[in-house]
Amino acid sequence: MVPIIVVTARISELDRVLGLQAGADDYMPKPCQVHELIARMEAIMRRVRPVVPDSPVIIHGPLEIDIASRRVLLNAIPVNLTPKEFDLLRVLASQPGKVVSRKQLMNQVWGDSWSRRTIDTHVSSLRKKLEGSSWITTVRGVGFKFRSR
Question: In the chain, is it the N or the C terminus that has fewer CB atoms within a 10 Å radius of its CB?
Fold first, then answer.
């Protein structure tokens, strides 16, 4: 769904009604104030932006990631992860098949302070703890992808 705000010089009540009936989400006559237009845009986006709650458990075959308890099971056996490894796995596993760039991962897991080696080290450690590299694949020059089994 694409939200639509009509900004027009037509100001009669009939024009407003017809604009809204035609599918507009809001109608603003010109001249309009920029701050009001931005506020209306933000209000519409709050209504139309899908709110997808984090699933309490992400399951991919034998891999179970419990978000609330921050617990990971592989073949029903607990996997001991550091907090950053868990966050990295959660971000990747919540978007299976999608390439997540290094920058996105670093911003979501580490914030602003990080180095290229940080992510490589954590991905390597995570692969070992998940019994191999088949869960997380490297997309050269871009980032990483989680492959569900």
Answer: N
Q: What are phi and psi of 11, to 5 degrees?
A: -120, 5
| pTM of full prediction above 0.70 | no
Correct CATH for 57-146 of 3.40.50.10860, 1.10.510.10, 1.10.10.10, 1.10.287.70: 1.10.10.10
Q: How far apart are CA 40 and CA 26, in angstroms?
A: 8
Cβ neighbours of residue 23 closer than 8 Å, sequence gap 6 or more? 4
Contact between residue 95 and residue 136 where contact means Cβ atoms under 8 Å apart: no
Element containing residue 15 per DSSP (H, E): helix 13-21
